[in-house]
Inverse folding.
């Protein structure tokens, strides 16, 4: 009976991951009048440095052969592949047959994303770029969706006029220092176009490390304010762990992920999941998963993870300093000469991380804020996959190395700190920038959808003159809660 329950739960988890609902909140579509807004706007030009978006990478862009480099996951095809792989493994009683089928499918999905050993794109893959003000792309502006980065652009065009809004769209796989050069070029163009002396920047998710690279390389002379939104500016645990081969499923992380993603808030389902947990179902599934990982890991890393993701410079920029040496040894041990160029780039990123506290400091002419979320489980397939997050990345690094309890836990009874959230989950006392860091419970990754309270908060930050702290506006204290509709609530 227990085996049957485990099997059923495994299938439930699989189908749940296939059909995970989008975290974005979509407001009603509204036709925005950007020209009128631009005529009245006299502030700084706005630049959005977006996050990673795998679906926008395009193979042979602008040719008759143009197609998406990532074709997307088809649920039916995925299930067929898994069933075929399982059948082959059982028939031959050899897990290598299972592995070959799965890797072939994964290569079909992601193979075009591979880079060369010097960090350049291996195939003719690129993205559509928008080097000019968005007023030069009226069709693009008219079709902007309401969620995530698109919602940020839509709001900015509405508030500032599309002639004052710039969008840094880029190939997120490539060298952040190369992107720093291109961001600098966009900044200079915005200043020239508008006659202003500074710009405002919002950098979302992967855009955080790209903007940090720009500030490291060029300084902040041309920047008034930066908002790091759900940002990678301090790196990520997921990259650091997986590049060290620390692919592991922990039972409590699996339980909390399933509980959140598959309706644990429903009384009946919540009771079911808790019951399954008590009889050890999640522990058995995790143990089974870890045994499978142990058997497959060397082959998966050698044939896929190292040559595809290990050659992407941007991911090396996300490796935390305390895990970097272990990452290099695991990914390239014995092959240092072969991968010398990507290793050299990775060392430069480590130097940038060491210098962060020096070049990323406010002064009388430069200001920045950090906004990130906690309270949502990430996919639990790496050592720290059970850490608190926003459904995509871990809250600790996004908040500037905050101390955050694991998903499903608190910091403990009697815990003391100068800046502890009212729910006793997040401590911002010792983060890099405690006076300019906001933590929002329950909001998903890059939650700045058009027409929401969350969006109002971010654009309020951009509207301020001079330094802003968590004490500036009682409407927006350091800790807030978010509803599913991204309505911000104060703790009472």
């Amino acid at each position: 009976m227990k085996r049957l329950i485990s099997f059923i739960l495994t299938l439930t988890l699989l189908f749940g991951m296939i059909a995970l609902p989008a975290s974005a909140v979509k407001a009603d579509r509204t036709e925005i009048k950007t020209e009128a807004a631009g005529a009245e706007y006299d502030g700084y030009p706005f630049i959005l440095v977006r996050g990673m978006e795998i679906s926008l990478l395009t193979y042979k862009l602008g040719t008759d052969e143009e197609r998406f480099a990532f074709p997307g996951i088809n649920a039916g095809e995925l299930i067929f592949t898994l069933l075929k792989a399982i059948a082959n493994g059982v028939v031959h009683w050899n897990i290598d047959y299972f592995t070959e089928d799965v890797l072939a499918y994964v290569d079909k999905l992601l193979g075009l994303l591979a880079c060369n050993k010097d960090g350049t794109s291996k195939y003719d893959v690129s993205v559509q770029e928008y080097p000019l003000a968005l007023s030069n792309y009226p069709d693009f502006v008219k079709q902007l969706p309401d969620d995530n980065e698109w919602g940020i652009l839509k709001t900015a065009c509405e508030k500032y006029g599309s002639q004052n809004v710039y969008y840094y769209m880029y190939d997120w796989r490539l060298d952040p220092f190369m992107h720093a050069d291109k961001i600098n070029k966009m900044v200079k163009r915005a200043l020239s176009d508008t006659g202003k002396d500074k710009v405002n920047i919002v950098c979302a998710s992967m855009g955080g490390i790209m903007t940090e690279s720009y500030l490291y390389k060029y300084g902040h002379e041309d920047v008034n304010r930066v908002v790091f939104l759900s940002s990678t500016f301090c790196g990520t645990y997921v990259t650091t762990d997986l590049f060290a081969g620390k692919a592991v499923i922990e039972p409590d992380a699996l339980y909390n992920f399933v509980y959140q993603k598959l309706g644990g808030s429903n009384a009946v389902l919540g009771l079911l999941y808790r019951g399954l947990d008590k009889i050890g179902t999640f522990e058995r599934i995790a143990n089974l998963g870890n045994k499978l990982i142990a058997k497959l890991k060397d082959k998966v890393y050698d044939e896929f993870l190292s040559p595809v993701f290990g050659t992407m410079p941007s991911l090396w920029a996300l490796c935390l300093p305390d895990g970097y040496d272990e990452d290099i040894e695991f990914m390239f041990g014995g092959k240092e000469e072969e991968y010398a160029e990507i290793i050299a780039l990775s060392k430069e990123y480590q130097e940038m991380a060491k210098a962060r506290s020096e070049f990323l400091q406010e002064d009388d002419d430069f200001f920045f804020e950090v906004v990130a979320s906690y309270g949502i489980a990430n996919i639990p397939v790496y050592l720290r996959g059970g850490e608190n997050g926003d459904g995509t990345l871990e809250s600790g690094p996004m908040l500037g190395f905050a101390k955050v309890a694991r998903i499903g836990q608190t910091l403990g009874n009697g815990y003391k700190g100068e800046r502890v959230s009212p729910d006793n989950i997040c401590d911002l006392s010792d983060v890099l920038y405690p006076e300019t860091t906001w933590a929002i419970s329950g909001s998903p990754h890059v939650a700045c959808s058009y027409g929401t309270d969350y969006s109002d908060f971010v654009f309020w930050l951009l509207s301020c003159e001079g330094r802003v702290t968590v004490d500036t506006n009682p409407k927006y204290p350091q800790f807030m809660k978010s509803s599913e509709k991204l309505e911000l609530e104060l703790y009472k």
